[in-house]
Amino acid sequence: MLDLLKAYENYLSKVKKASNNTISSYMRDLHQFSNWLHQAMEIDVIDATQQNIADYLSQLESNGRSSATVSRNLASIKNFYAYVVSSGFLEHTPVAEIRVSRREKHLPQILTGREIELLLSQPVCVDAKGYRDKAMLETMYATGIRVSELIELDIDDVNLEQGIIKCNNSKKSRIIPLYPAALKALGTYLREIRDGIVASPNERALFLNVNGVRMSRQGFWKILKHYQETAHIEKEITPHTLRHSFAVHLLENGADIGSLQELMGHCDISSTQMYTHLINQKIKSVYKKCHPKA
């Protein structure tokens, strides 16, 4: 039933106008589900039953997948079958009654101010790689943008005179200011480094890999992991750790939730309010540690 999966992929791209990352995530989940149905059940996705889907999700849990991963797979499968029904291939979805048990939701990892300073100081600016890495890390923490947004930045999205970047995603654009150290690192990279490593004068990508073309998500992850190790930071750092830290540090220093929502690019303020829970958690921890009667 690859034709049906391909039709759904085209629907996501052409009709729903979903981002490349969303499409990639959905289709990866669906292809894995389809392969399991073929191998374990010897059926196509069009013939899957509610029990088949429940068994598949149970197997994901048995294989140690997190509740978030299982929930995401369920969402991918639900959305797919909603499309299948609306397109007339099935009369009823086989997913309607399936639920995933919710485990305790863990709050995201946050770096302290000292850990941020340590991480940002790791790139040694003696060659093109050092200057580029310094600019990327400073830009990530200065703006709180997603890794997908970082690597999709073009040189036209940077305004050094105004000290801002324009961040574009599938839904809207937003303008984000840069603090002086980030502006300096980005300016040095643009003025002195990028032209020496770019593969083609037609390349518009801001951040480039060793081949002179646009940096990939995986490439940035490897860079970040390297500097985590050289900084001897024991916390597990991902690109989203920098985004979470950006948000919490702004709130700690007096930012209002509405401004933070705009900077983060959240459509729903409930996504931004998660960070207030982190602040409250920290306050409770300080209270218990420091109050004489706690």
Q: How would you describe this protein?
A:
The protein folds into two domains: 85 residues, DNA polymerase, domain 1 (Orthogonal Bundle); 176 residues, Intergrase catalytic core (hpI Integrase, Chain A). With 294 residues, it is mainly alpha-helical. Helix 2 packs across helix 4 and helix 11 packs across helix 12. It is built from twelve helices and three strands, in the order H-H-H-H-H-H-H-E-E-E-H-H-H-H-H.
Per-chain topology:
Blueprint: H1 2-14, H2 20-41, H3 50-62, H4 67-86, H5 113-120, H6 128-143, H7 147-151, E1 158-159, E2 164-168, E3 173-177, H8 180-197, H9 217-230, H10 239-252, H11 257-264, H12 269-290
Antiparallel strand pairs: 1-2, 2-3
Keywords:
hpI Integrase, Chain A; mainly alpha; single chain; 294 residues; DNA polymerase, domain 1; three-stranded antiparallel sheet; 12 helices
Q: Largest sheet, order of strands side by side? A: 1-2-3
Number of domains: 2
CATH superfamily of the largest domain: Intergrase catalytic core
CATH class of the largest domain: Mainly Alpha
Which ranges are low-confidence, i.e. pLDDT below 50, for 5 or more consecutive residues?
A: none
Largest sheet: 3 strands, antiparallel
**What class, by secondary structure content?**
mainly alpha
The count of DSSP E runs of length 2 or more, i.e. the number of strands, is 3
Rg over CA atoms: 22 Å
Shape: globular
Sequence of secondary-structure elements: HHHHHHHEEEHHHHH
Total of DSSP H or I helical runs spanning 4+ residues? 12
Give the strand content.
Answer: under 5%
**For the residues shown, what is the average pLDDT?**
88
The second-level CATH architecture of the largest domain is Orthogonal Bundle
